[in-house]
């Protein structure tokens, strides 16, 4: 294109100058505008190609892990995305060639000095971003009125940093080792379940079936619902999702109403008598006590209690997040 302009430029200049009326745009201006436009287009083309090449090279490079299991590392908040009235998604920045470095399933601990407290507050959280996401990781956090850390994170602005250490191993998952996984989650207890769901569905060779019972106060409190529904829609033979609310807000509600009862567990969870099954539970303490029993004082799994004990599940068949 530039060569063509160069060859025709003398004739264009002469013709435009001899025929142009007074006050008309000169051909010289048209020519230089054309040249400038061409240069911008060519420059933009090469810039775009160069940027794509950089991204391609970074994607091809082995990922480095951002987390340090022995030391707290400061991560910068990139953006906050509201989900509902008390829950938001917090996206933290990593280097383009970095991934967080969490095994499935595991969490990390965050540390922050809150208010006038002399000692820092430390809490565990489970990210919801894909296992091998590069350049970022996401936390979905519900703000509790008395929650020191959740309130602190909700008050963060883009550019603020949060100290994180991990990973902290939870349930070591081996692809295809289980025939079926039942999941019972309450509120923000959905995050480790989503981590596991993403891992299973991302592996085309893993045919483990999963059934999730997700309990919340109301329909408006169901976080990550669109994500869960999309997974269930794409993998109908592998993932079933059932929602439970304390009280239905409308006549259009098609899920279950009430609490996670013995009858609901029997209806949706794999039976205790089946082989190679697991029922995982995560939620508020009262819910854990009712369904599976809480963890031991040393945070080990402890004995199975509640509804699952009553139905005959063994400690090998139950995992408490």
Question: Can you characterise this structure?
Answer:
- With about 325 residues, the chain is of the alpha/beta class.
- Helix content is about 30%, strand content about 25%.
- The protein has 8 helices and 14 strands.
- The strands form 3 sheets. It has a 6-stranded antiparallel sheet, covered by helices on one side.
Chart the SSEs and their pairings:
Elements: H1 2-19, H2 27-60, E1 64-65, E2 73-82, E3 87-93, E4 98-99, E5 106-112, E6 121-125, E7 136-142, H3 148-154, E8 161-169, E9 180-186, H4 190-202, E10 209-216, H5 225-234, E11 239-245, E12 256-257, H6 262-268, E13 277-282, H7 285-291, H8 306-310, E14 318-320
Parallel strand pairs: 1-4, 9-10, 9-13, 10-11, 11-12, 13-14
Antiparallel strand pairs: 2-3, 2-8, 3-7, 5-6, 5-8
Question: In a few lines, what is going on in this structure?
Answer:
This protein has 321 residues and is an alpha/beta fold. It has helices at 2-19, 27-60, 148-154, 190-202, 225-234, 262-268, 285-291, 306-310, and strands spanning 64-65, 73-82, 87-93, 98-99, 106-112, 121-125, 136-142, 161-169, 180-186, 209-216, 239-245, 256-257, 277-282, 318-320. 31% of the residues lie in helices and 26% in strands.
Pairing-aware structural class of the strands and helices? alpha/beta
> How many helices in DSSP terms?
8
Average predicted local confidence, pLDDT: 87
Cα separation of the termini: 64 Å
Strand content: 25-35%
